[in-house]
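help with these C-alpha cells:
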Amino acid sequence: MDDIGSAPSLPAGVLYVAAAILTALLVWVFWRTKCRIANFILFAIWMRYMMSAFHEITFTASPIGLTWNALGSSLIFCLGLLMIQPKALRLRFFLPVYVVVAVILISGIANQEYAGTVNAIVKYGYFLVVAIGTCEALERYGEQPFMRVLLWAFVPLLAFQILSIVLGVSKATEADGSVSFIGGYNHEASFSIALATCFAVAAFARSMNVFVKSGLLLALLAGLMLANYRTVLLAIVPIVVTQFALGTTQMFSRAQQAAVGIFMSIVCFFAVVAAGSVLQDRFQDVFTIIASGGAGVIKPPSSFTLSDQGLMSGRAYIWSEYFYGYLAGTDAQKLIGLGPNSWVFAFRAYAHNTLVSQLYEYGILGVAALLYFWASMLFAALRVRRGPRTMLIAAHLTFIMLNMATMPLWMIEGYIFYAVICGYTLYLLKPAASTQQQYRVVVEDGGLQLSRPRSVPRPLRTRPM
C-alpha cells in the first residue's frame, strides 16, 4: 500500500513557532488586501492547510464527536454562507452539484447512514462557498491581483516541507524503502493535491514576474517529487505541459509565439519521457497494467495472489473488493449504493478511485451524477472565450485524472482544488464587461492617479435556475 504507517508531525517546538510566524504573515496579507471576500477565500484555504499540519490533534475527536478538522471545515462552510451572495447558490452553473447532493441524500436516508450523509453534504457545501467566493473575489479584487494574493494560502505547504527536509522528518510510503517529505502532514495524497492546487493558481497568475513565476513552478514540481505520490505526478502532466509549452510563449512577440510553442512542446515531450525513465521503478506497476491491456485488474478478490495484491500499491485488489462488494448488495443498493461512508464498515482502506467509491456508496445513480458534474464543468471550460482557456481545460483534465487512482473528493484538499478551478471557470464565462474593475481618480502627492476600489460588489449575471 502507498499509505504505510502514519506520518510523524514536525517537532512541536518547530511547528508552533512556524505556525505563529505564518499566522502573522497571513494577518499582514489581510491588511494589505482589504477585500472581505478575497480574504475569506485566502483564510478558508490557508486554515485547512494549517490544521492538517497539526494532524495529531486535529484528526482526533472534538467534544461534540466530530474531528477537529471536520468541525473546522463545517465552521468555514457556515462562515462562507454568510460571506457569499446568496443568489449565487441559484445559478444554473451549480445544478450538477445539487444533483450529486440529491443522490447522496437519497442513498443516505435509504441506508440510514445519517452521519455519513451530513459529512458528505458539508464537503459539497465547502466546495460551493469556495467556488462562489473565488468567482466573487476575482470580480471584486481583480483577476490577476487575486491570483497573486491567493498564492499566500500555500506558503505553509512549502514552509513545512522545507522544514521536514531540513529536520529529516519523512514518511515511508512503499515497501521498497522510498520515503515522502510532506511537511509533517498525515498523508502524501492530500499534501500532493494541495501542491498541485498551488501549481494551478501559479499557472493562472499570468501577470507575475516571469522569473519569480518560473522559480515557483519549478519549486512546486520539486516539492511534488519529494512528496513522492505518483498518482499526482501522473495526473498533473496536462497542466505542467500546458504551462511550460504554451505559457512560455507569452514571453515572446506574437510573430515568434508559434515557433516557440512548437519547440517547447517538443522539449516537454522529451522531459516527460526522461522523467518516466528516471522514475521507471516507481511506475513499473503502471507499465505492467498498460502492457497487459488491463487484464486481471478487476477479478474476484479471492483470485488475487499475494503478488497480485501488491499491484499498483494494492489498488487493483482494493477496487475488486469494492466492485464485488457492490455486486453483493440488493437491487435497490445497486441503484443507489450502500450509503455515504459505508465503506468504513466493510473495507480496510478507501477505494483510491472516486468512481469505484461512488459506485459502492451511491450506486449507478451516483456514478451518473458524478460524471454529469465533471462533464458539465469541463464543457463550461470549453465554452470559455477569454483568459487562459487552454490552461483552464488542462486543470480540469488534471483533476479528473486525479480521481482515477486516488480520491480528491474524499478530502477537503481535493474540493479546494476543484472549487478554485470551477470558480475561475464561472468567472471567465461571464462577459468581460461584467467583470471589469471600476476606477476612480484620486489626488495623491500632488498628482492625479487611478485607484481601484478596495471592494466593489458585483452581481453574478449567469442565468439562475
Observations:
- The two ends are 44 Å apart (CA to CA).
- The CA atoms of residues 98 and 334 lie 21 Å apart.
- The chain has one domain: 12-264+364-451.
